[in-house]
Structures are given as C-alpha cells and as structure tokens.
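sry for the spam today, last one i promise. struct tokens for design, 378 residues
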C-alpha cells in the first residue's frame, strides 16, 4: 500500500490529523513527533473506531448508545439519532450517535411508558365513572322500588280494609231492614260479621306490626315462657275459625319442653300468621298439624298443612314484604303479602331460624326454631 501511495503523487501530509490520499479509501496521518507517516484504509479506521464501541470490560447497558464514524461522503447504514463532524483530528469524517439496539430507543421507551400511563389513567377513570354510574343507578332503582312498595302498600291496605267493611255493612243493612227468614239466618249473618271483624282485626294487627317494624319500633318483651303457653294462646285465637271452616287440628306437644326466653305476643303472632296461611291456602284437605319439640338448645314449632303447597321457585321470595306467589289467589283469600315477612322479622329478633318445605298440591311445612336462651337481648 506504501508503494502505491508513493506512486499516487499524493502530497505527503505534515499534519497529525487524518487526510485523504489520492488512493481510494486510503488515509494518511503523521505521528505526533512527525517521524512516521501512517496509512490507513477506510475499513481499518472504521474497525478501530468499531473497537471503541465495545471496549473490553465495558458492558453496554440496555438503553445505552454508541458512536460510529465514517468518511463524510459515505452514507450511513442506518439513520443515526444525531450526526456531527468528527473534529480537527478527523476532518472529512462524521460521527453518528446510535442507540444500542434499535428497538430499545429510550425515547420510544419513554413514549411507550407515557402512553401506558395515559391508557391506565383512562381505564381507571372510565372504571371509576362506571362504578359511580352503577351506584347512582342502584340508588335510583331502590328509590323506585321503595316508591312502588309504598304505592302497593296503600293499594293493598285500601283493598284489604274495604272488602270486610263492605261485607259487614251489607250484612248489618240486611239485618236492620229485617230481610231475614228466621233466627238461624240472623245467627249466620252475625257469625259472618264476627268473622269479617276478626279478619279486619288481624289485618290491622299485621299492618301495625309492619309499620312498627319499618320504623324499627317493635319493642319486644323477652321473658321466660313455656312453649305450650304460646301454642295454646295462638290456638285459642283461631279455634273458632278451625271449627267454622271444618278444619282438623292435630296438636303434638312433646313432653318435657323447656321454657324459652321470648316475647310471648310476638311468637303468638308468628303461629297465628302460619295458621292463617294454612287456612287460606288449603282447599279440599282441611288439616293443620302443630308439632312442638326440643332440639339441642332450640325449641321447634312446626305448622303443617295439606293444602295447595308451592314449587321450589315459588318458595324463593315468600319472606319478602308484599310478595305473593299468586296475587289473584291471595286477594281472593284475603292476603296482602305481609304475613311471612312479619314472621321472619319476629323470628330474627329472637335469634331463631325459619325454614319451609313444600310441594305443589301436597302441602307445606313451616318450621320455626327459637333458641332456649336468648343471647344478647336488650
Ligand atoms: P299473604 O298475605 O299473601 O298470605 P304471606 O307473606 O303470608 O302473604 O305469604 C306470602 C305468599 O306465600 C303467599 O301469597 C302464598 O302464595 C305463599 N304461602 C304462604 N303460606 C303458604 C302455605 N301454607 N301454603 C301455600 N302457599 C303459602
């Protein structure tokens, strides 16, 4: 290469900076003390600079960058992030700044990170808005349901009170106008009036209990009471109806029942409501069974009938306020969908449990379990 250089009539440089020769791809530079002239091919120079890219022992970091050099008139293999001239020592050379690994451009990475942050912020914002909308929606639905419940309540109360009142007025008018055959008919009418009156009282009792329940005002009076006492009081209140409607009542009180701590009137209401339903939802087979027994630390009251019964699906909501499986049937027999919700409320207040088994056209069994000792009652 030295011989070719000498023949090329290139002017020998005196500078210790790199300059072109007339040979293609050959460069010359004088050493610092000027004694030696060094000739380099472009490739050799590149290789030396390339060596700087990976100096021994220096580990290039993932997001690092490196510098490449090339003669100014050559073009880059790929576009550098930044380009500048190599300076006095390498005139006619350019330096390019490249990111180590093209796909790990730190700016692109930062942009990606920023985009991820925006994306998550938007997702979280949308999710928060969704939750808020859901909560507002639920509140609105609850309000609507409450309004409907109130309207239902007013409609039911009006209807339920009007029916017995109208029939009592009709019967008393008939009696007052003397439109009866004999003493027996007078007695029949009076009995009917008595029945309607009884039904009205039960309805009003239930409405009052319900309204106190709504205002959390039902005050229970917990005292020691014998289960037989509760059953007898409930039976006394319905015995007229039992005989008038031709029901058979089978009572089975197990011996040695323990006393329980309970609100006597509350539990009497529970049993009366269960009896009432057994009356209302029985057709041909008029039979009601009452079984009271002790089970561990509980006393169980079971009321069974052989009436219309319910399917599994129909049983699901019967303890909800105003729920009726068949509204037309309940209206006909005189129900307003409050009886079982009151039963559940009272049983809950005693820390007890209620369960039901029923089969369509075979009958139902309602079981109420009351703990012998009431825990934490106030
Ligand atoms: P209602 O005043 O309508 O009787 P309840 O809360 O007492 O209201 O009962 C809710 C629903 O459960 C009733 O409408 C009825 O369909 C059903 N139900 C309750 N007791 C019985 C039963 N012994 N046999 C069949 N269905 C019953």
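last one done:
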């Amino acid at each position: 290469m030295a011989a070719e250089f000498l023949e090329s009539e290139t002017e020998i440089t005196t500078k210790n900076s790199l300059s072109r020769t007339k040979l293609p791809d050959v460069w010359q530079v004088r050493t610092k003390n000027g004694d030696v002239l060094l000739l380099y091919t472009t490739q050799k120079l590149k290789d030396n600079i390339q060596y700087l890219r990976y100096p021994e022992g220096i580990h290039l970091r993932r997001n690092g960058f490196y510098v490449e050099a090339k003669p100014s008139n050559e073009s880059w293999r790929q576009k550098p992030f930044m380009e500048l001239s190599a300076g006095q020592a390498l005139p006619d050379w350019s330096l390019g700044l490249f990111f180590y690994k093209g796909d790990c451009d730190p700016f692109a990475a930062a942009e990606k990170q920023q985009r991820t942050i925006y994306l998550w912020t938007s997702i979280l914002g949308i999710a928060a808005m969704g939750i808020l909308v859901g909560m507002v929606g639920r509140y609105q639905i609850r309000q609507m349901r409450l309004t409907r419940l109130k309207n239902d309540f007013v409609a039911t109360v009006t209807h339920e009170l009007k029916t017995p009142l109208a029939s009592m007025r009709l019967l008393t008018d008939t009696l007052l106008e003397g439109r009866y055959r004999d003493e027996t008919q007078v007695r029949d009418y009076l009995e009917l009036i008595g029945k309607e009156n009884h039904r009205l009282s039960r309805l009003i009792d239930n409405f009052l209990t319900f309204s106190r329940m709504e205002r959390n005002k039902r005050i229970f009076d917990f005292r020691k009471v014998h289960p037989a006492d509760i059953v007898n009081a409930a039976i006394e209140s319905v015995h007229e109806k039992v005989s008038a409607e031709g029901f058979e009542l089978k009572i089975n009180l197990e011996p040695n029942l323990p006393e329980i701590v309970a609100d006597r009137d509350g539990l009497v209401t529970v049993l009366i409501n269960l009896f009432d339903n057994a009356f209302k939802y029985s057709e041909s087979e008029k039979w009601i069974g009452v079984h009271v027994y002790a089970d561990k630390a509980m006393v169980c009251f079971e009321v069974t009938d052989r009436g219309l019964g319910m399917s599994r699906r129909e049983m699901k909501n019967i303890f909800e306020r105003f729920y009726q499986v068949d509204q037309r049937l309940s209206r006909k027999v005189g129900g307003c969908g409050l009886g079982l919700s009151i039963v559940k409320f009272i049983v809950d207040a005693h820390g007890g449990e209620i369960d039901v088994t029923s089969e369509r056209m075979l009958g139902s069994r309602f079981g109420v379990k009351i703990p012998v000792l009431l825990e934490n009652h106030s």
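DSSP finds nine helices and 13 strands in the chain. ok im logging off now
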